[in-house]
Design goal:
The chain is of the alpha+beta class. The chain is 51% helix and 17% strand. Strand 2 and strand 3 form a beta hairpin. The chain binds flavin-adenine dinucleotide (FAD). The site of flavin-adenine dinucleotide has 23 residues, from helix 4, strand 1, strand 3 and helix 10.
């Protein structure tokens, strides 16, 4: 029987993160956004709560939960602050997960305890200045020399790559040519710091101001041959499978953003008066908020469904792409409508909806654009 209700344990986790988001994250969100500073203290506390270890087994320092638990936490965090939520999402589903899925026992023993405790952050270096949606267009190279990979090239827009606690960047690089003459792409672990590896100055972004994003450059960066992650030549395919899962996590984050816009709009529509009554008494406003709630709800069901299929070991590529597509659009549409409900105040940075408005656009771009999701869905339909 289909059951979308949370179990007692899941509801307990959701409530715990909801309270943390309200009491700890929300009060400092505007400050970190305005000053464009990374929320180290919030991240430290999230580490203590075990959020970075949610989907990993206890033997690796994790909490023994699953990917859906991570999604629930991301949704609650993004209701009040997308920057904090993306910091967790990128650290877990992009930073630690590739090591867990494809690492050797030695690599897992070295990296997972620090990553799952939140003491260290790992970053995922796939995108390049000339290769985003077409990530197979990687130009970064790695050649084997005296038992070392020598890496040259650059990466663009890499989340969590330049914080004081970043210790690892996993990169894709061309390591040769396949028998059919195509690029052989592998993934390699680069500890931070390593000589020749440079974290370039942070981007000036439209939103996600408290999230850490940098271009990276590699100039004859040498790491031991054993730092190959997964099979040689499987790097691109492995990274794409990480992104399939990641889409469910980003969808959960986007649902949180969409719901946060509903929360703020309901509150404001009851308080703000115009023409002698609360603005929410106008059906034009009430219907707008009702539609926002419907978008958040349907997008939530989409990511619950994708996560359920993934955890049951069933194919979930199409469902994950659908969830990412509808949740990203729900966040953007709700942010635009929530700003409208707030009138001129919605355009003022001190109002949370203004931050949601700036933050939400990237949800239609990062971890696969809307067009890429449509491509994936169409492909699954045989088109
Ligand atoms: C804040 C931020 C954080 C990020 N974090 C990371 C990270 O941690 N790690 C990482 O590796 N990457 C990261 N990215 C990169 C992100 O995943 C890419 O920006 C995204 O995949 C799009 O790639 P692109 O920017 O090169 O755009 P392009 O691929 O150049 O796309 C430009 C436009 O063309 C469209 N387009 C492209 N090809 C087609 C097609 N065949 N059909 C129809 N339309 C098409 C796209 O949908 C888009 O609208 C991050 C980006 C940002 C902005």
């Amino acid at each position: 029987m289909l059951d979308t209700r949370l179990t007692e344990e899941q509801e307990q986790l959701r409530k715990t993160v909801e309270a943390f988001a309200r009491d700890v994250v929300a009060p400092v969100a505007a400050h970190h956004d305005e000053t464009k500073t990374f929320p180290y203290e919030v991240v430290r506390q999230m580490g203590e709560m075990g959020l970075f270890g949610l989907p990993f087994p206890e033997e690796h320092g994790g909490m023994g939960g699953d990917y859906f638990a991570l999604c629930l936490a991301l949704e609650e965090l993004a209701r009040v602050d997308q920057s904090v939520a993306i910091t967790l999402e990128a650290a877990v589903s992009l930073g630690a997960m590739p090591v867990y899925r494809f690492g050797t026992e030695a690599q897992k023993a070295e990296w997972l305890p620090q990553l799952t405790s939140g003491q260290a952050l790992g970053a995922f270096g796939l995108t390049e200045p000339g290769a985003g949606s077409d990530a197979g267009g990687t130009r970064t190279t790695a050649r084997l020399e005296d038992g070392h990979w020598v890496i040259n090239g650059s990466k663009a827009f890499i989340t969590n790559s330049g914080t004081d606690i970043t210790r690892l960047v996993t990169v894709t690089a061309v390591t040769g040519e396949t028998a059919s003459g195509k690029k052989e792409i592998s993934s390699i672990l680069v500890p931070v710091p390593t000589q020749g590896f440079t974290v370039e100055p942070a981007y000036s972004k439209v939103g996600w101001h408290a999230s850490d994003t940098h271009p990276l450059s590699f100039d004859d960066v040498r790491v031991p041959e054993e730092n190959l992650l997964g099979e040689r030549g499987r790097g691109y395919a492995n990274f794409l499978s990480i992104l399939d899962e990641g889409r469910i996590a980003i969808a959960a984050l986007a649902v949180g953003a969409a719901q946060g816009c509903v929360d703020e709009s309901v509150k404001y529509a009851k308080e703000r008066e115009a023409f002698g009554q609360a603005i929410g008494k106008n059906q034009a406003i009430a219907f707008k908020i009702a539609r926002m709630e419907a978008r958040a709800h349907t997008a939530r069901m989409a990511y619950y469904d994708a996560a359920a299929k993934m955890l049951a070991g069933q194919p979930f590529k199409k469902e994950a792409a659908i969830a990412k597509l509808v949740a990203g659009e729900a966040a953007m549409d709700n942010a635009r409508d929530a700003t409208q409900v707030h009138g001129g105040y919605g355009f003022m940075n001190e109002y949370p909806v203004a931050r949601q408005y700036r933050d939400s656009k990237i949800l239609e771009i990062g971890e696969g654009t809307t067009e890429v999701q449509l491509m994936l869905i169409a492909r699954e339909l045989g088109l």
